[in-house]
């Protein structure tokens, strides 16, 4: 069986990534009591400009405290703000598991941040290459055209997240969705981000769900994300965590199917196609089964 619950976090799997303001140790402490696989301490949108220096210091303290088994990421400010390197220099002594880069335009941005991380890891006594990078990859109109450039850009790249809030402003749109269904520009960004992540062989991370109290809608959106190939979802409220984690768990029927597929190929390792329960299966089915069971 695949790892789940606390075991999933210990195995480094990500289903839920909960944003926490970088200037709020209280909210960080509350989030640390939950079961999010990763906490993203935010130095960008949730912190006003004049509080960013204080937030950097508080974020370093949060990283050093390591109150649970959560992976700890830091969302730095975007490269076009001129604050990214200052953010990184302030927080890297806290040994974050990863950095979230907002408003990323493509692989060149990842390479720039990776070069900075290499120097800062060395300065902080961190094994060079261990800090991962997750990019928020669809926040501007121009970023959509860079999605194909993430493949092979850096071994640090761990995931691509799509986001709708800033994209809406970039497009000059008046609304993003009707009745809980995204309009076509946002569906396009979502789908292209999913494909870019698959091409780069990194995690595809679904955007935040902003209708805080609509838990049924959250579950529906998360199950649709998993169905389409996303492996994680970003969150903005602690009460969303358990619903998202459960929605990303394989069903019992999926587990049984996956185990049967893997067993069939194990018994006939030289076969490219097999017959199973009256259906023809091949290597793509094997890869799907391995993904369901957390083996790939």
From TrEMBL:
GO terms for molecular function: lyase activity; magnesium ion binding. Its cofactor is Mg(2+). GO terms for biological process: oxaloacetate metabolic process. Substrate binds at residues 75, 139. It holds the Pfam family HpcH_HpaI. Mg(2+) binds at residues 139, 166. It comes from the Bacteria. Residues 15-238 form the HpcH/HpaI aldolase/citrate lyase domain. Keywords: Lyase, Magnesium, Metal-binding. InterPro entries: Aldolase/citrate-lyase_domain, Citrate_lyase_beta/mcl1/mcl2, Pyrv/PenolPyrv_kinase-like_dom, Pyrv_kinase-like_dom_sf. Transmembrane segments: none annotated. Belongs to the HpcH/HpaI aldolase family. This is CoA ester lyase.
């Amino acid at each position: 069986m695949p790892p789940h619950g606390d075991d999933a976090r210990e195995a480094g799997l990500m289903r839920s990534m909960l944003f926490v303001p970088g200037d709020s140790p209280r909210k960080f402490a509350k989030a640390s009591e939950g079961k999010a696989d990763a906490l993203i301490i935010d130095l960008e949108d949730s912190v006003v400009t004049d509080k960013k220096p204080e937030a950097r210091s508080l974020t370093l303290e949060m990283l050093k405290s390591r109150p649970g088994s959560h992976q700890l990421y830091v969302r730095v400010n975007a490269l076009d703000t001129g604050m990214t390197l200052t953010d990184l220099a302030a927080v890297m002594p806290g040994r974050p598991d990863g950095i979230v880069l907002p408003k990323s335009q493509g692989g060149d941005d990842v390479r720039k941040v990776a070069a900075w991380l290499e120097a800062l890891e060395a300065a902080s006594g961190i094994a060079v290459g261990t800090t991962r990078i997750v990019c928020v990859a669809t926040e501007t109109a121009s970023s959509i055209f860079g999605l194909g450039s993430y493949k092979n850009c850096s071994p640090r790249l761990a995931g691509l997240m799509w986001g709708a809030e800033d994209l809406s402003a970039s497009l000059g749109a008046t609304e993003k969705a009707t009745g809980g269904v995204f309009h076509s520009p946002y569906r396009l960004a979502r789908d292209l981000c999913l494909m870019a992540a698959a091409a780069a062989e990194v995690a595809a991370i679904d955007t935040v769900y902003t209708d805080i109290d609509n838990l049924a809608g959250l579950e529906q959106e998360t199950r649709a994300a998993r169905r389409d190939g996303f492996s994680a979802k970003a969150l903005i409220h602690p009460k969303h965590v358990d619903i998202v984690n459960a929605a990303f768990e394989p069903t019992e029927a999926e587990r049984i199917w996956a185990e049967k597929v893997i067993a069939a190929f194990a018994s006939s390792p030289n076969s490219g196609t097999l017959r199973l329960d009256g259906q023809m299966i091949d290597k793509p089915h094997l890869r799907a089964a391995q993904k369901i069971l957390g083996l790939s």
